[in-house]
């Protein structure tokens, strides 16, 4: 999950102001021809050189780099009790964060001290949530929040949900502590931004499995490590979006402040920050979503909460229980998303609404606060308000229903799905993969660099060359090419879905309203939940991994394309209609060409989301880099190799991000 | 001014109503939190045992071990048990930092033993669990029934064609599972000159699902599996005989051409825990049961969907004599 929101925001204005309306912009036959020529040369050379210099490495083999990384790990582990860096730095950080997590857990999720229950019981949490949602948002989201939180209890997952909430809150708090200042810095200074960007890329594309083991080595097992792992993954969106918000404050406003004699500090606190508040809250929102996405993976290092339930259910292939817990994560994501979104819009809404309500707001807020305090007190004192009543019957219903649906699908669809799998695997994946893995490494590298340069310009070409060189350095070239093949096939499928559903949603507000919630759910539902049914449908194959990646990545592409299509001016579409165009013609000749930059952005995001699923793919038969990463996490002697595989995934991500972004800039220019 | 006063009054009255409501609810009352702590919290004298940090590695068999040991430690010895869900590698790492006291089911892992027991001296062995770990190649029961000769490795090539999949590149597919498994399968295929390719399913979940589906739809699957394992009580997979294991035949990982040894699954505890004099340590040291015992509890958890604690309770109550021997 990477730069999603920021990029779409950045390009939106470009979409909204289409340059040449009906006329198809001049195609650049030169570029298409060059690409075709490159591919042709590749095919010819492949036929001649097949199977030579492929740089393949067997599953158990290591290179010197991998062994060296192992040695580093061992020496860190051996002297962690004497190293001053640990004694005075890492251990202190750990202590602070551990205390924070324990404090919040004592408050809402875990028995604290002599009490058999947390300080605030369910009624208090629900009341506080409702009150806070109402205060920062509006009564509608407050209602949603109360309903959502009550649902956790009905699912029989109250404590697990509160553990997850505690962890997410801590992680988001710590992340924002760093992210906002860093984001402001990056927004004010281009140099800071340039220095930060590669680090942010690394933090977001490096598979989390890779740094779980090192984190437990440094920060030990438990809440602190889980929180820090979550922070690493969740902070970048807030940094990027804050920087973007600061940068998009109109220059004239800042200049006006300057000319009035404002100091740097004043113009920051009085002009820049207040004006970018709304966007910054969106960054907070993205950080919360990213933190929730880490819930299941952090469970691998003993993070408490819903993730643990999902993982444990997975061990005995209990789809129903895993789905029930996954659903709780989805509900929490929806509640937190809607509340923060409402919070970002509230200031404006309040300004627009007439004074009548504002007048009442203060006394009502006070009354609400008192009510919330009463509820908290009750839940602190009485068992009925502290322990969620009932047995979680809704949870059992959800679980059995999920089980029944999966069983039905497995029994009735597996013939169909196997056929589909074989067609895609034999027709698309296998030929493509053998082209990538059986060609000599220098040929593939040359093709990649040439394509990068042609599609993205010489800068992108240089980036590709550097990435390809480093990929060879990781010693995992062949695995990287296997992963690349699956990734590209998955991206093609993502784009197919993206165009079909994106256009449909872009053309009809009703379809949009119906589909959007399921797209949200598909993005937030932990992939571990649907692995078991997918395994039943498609077996342990590369294709299963592709399907899982498509489920995760397609929603982003669909949303971006839908926005792009909707941004095509209505007048243009009307003009085309009155000129006698059929619906099909309008879509293919007007709407799609005019949302071209949305399409490139969707490809970019689709690819990066697919890449972030490589490791999950490794769990269901995709092999290659994903498997290497998981193996590095599970087996001591493969640790270094896993780390190298993680790097290789980052390199693939950076390479494609730079090429597609440069290409997007070119097409929209 | 007047308007402000009205507002103020509204606010106050709202607050008053809510406070009254709150007080009314309070008056209705009900049991207070912490009233029954004496009954629920302190069963027995917990002073001596203290906290017992038990690693739970991610497979159901281990979960069964952990459930029973935790249950006994909690209810018979009055320990406060903290279970930690961790992969092996990370659990062992925790011995040195005092975050993990015991690992209950270790499968070989000579590399970890060398590192943590011999070099860092943070862990010590605590004897066998009594479980025998059997690793090998397995086929679904329907296949062993339909083609009985398939259980001899020499006949595998005859059927290689049937095991072909989209992943195996024209050869038969030998499905391997989780990357944390102990496996020589790639070397075995090569050294036994079989027309097979090892395909990594990537997780135990994927492997079990493959076998479950194969048995249900009569599909051809051969792959890595092991016992004790709860899944065998659902689908009793049949083991394929590889060339018999002889001591030392697996000394060189690249040249292995024999079956896996039978692993004596054992317990590892942190060095500090072993010296602590905690009754939990004695329990871990004496803990010993059979594959059937473990499979029973694992089945309660995985198939009957009981909570680990309830599963442990059921087994402990039915096997008083065994448990008594551990805590004597």
Task: Summarize, please.
The complex is a heterodimer of chains A (669) and B (328). Chain A is an all-alpha fold and 669 residues long. Chain A has helices spanning 4-16, 29-49, 64-78, 84-108, 122-136, 139-154, 158-188, 190-205, 208-219, 223-247, 251-259, 264-275, 277-293, 295-298, 306-315, 319-352, 355-381, 383-386, 393-438, 441-456, 458-473, 477-507, 509-524, 527-538, 542-566, 570-578, 583-594, 596-611, 614-618, 624-634, 639-668.
What is the strand and helix layout of this fold?
The complex is a heterodimer of chains A (about 675) and B (about 325).
Chain A: H1 4-16, H2 29-49, H3 64-78, H4 84-108, H5 122-136, H6 139-154, H7 158-188, H8 190-205, H9 208-219, H10 223-247, H11 251-259, H12 264-275, H13 277-293, H14 295-298, H15 306-315, H16 319-352, H17 355-381, H18 383-386, H19 393-438, H20 441-456, H21 458-473, H22 477-507, H23 509-524, H24 527-538, H25 542-566, H26 570-578, H27 583-594, H28 596-611, H29 614-618, H30 624-634, H31 639-668
Helix pairs in contact in A: 1-25, 1-28, 2-20, 3-31, 4-7, 4-10, 5-6, 5-17, 6-16, 7-8, 7-10, 7-13, 7-15, 8-10, 9-10, 9-30, 10-13, 11-12, 13-16, 15-16, 16-19, 16-24, 19-22, 19-24, 20-21, 20-31, 21-31, 22-23, 22-25, 22-28, 23-25, 24-25, 25-28, 26-27, 28-31, 30-31
Chain B: H1 2-28, H2 37-40, E1 51-56, H3 60-75, E2 80-85, H4 88-97, E3 102-106, H5 110-119, E4 123-139, H6 141-146, H7 156-159, E5 172-176, H8 185-191, E6 196-200, H9 204-217, E7 222-227, H10 231-234, E8 238-240, E9 263-270, H11 271-275, H12 279-286, H13 291-302, H14 308-318, H15 320-327
Parallel strand pairs in B: 1-2, 5-6, 5-7
Antiparallel strand pairs in B: 3-9, 4-7, 4-8, 4-9
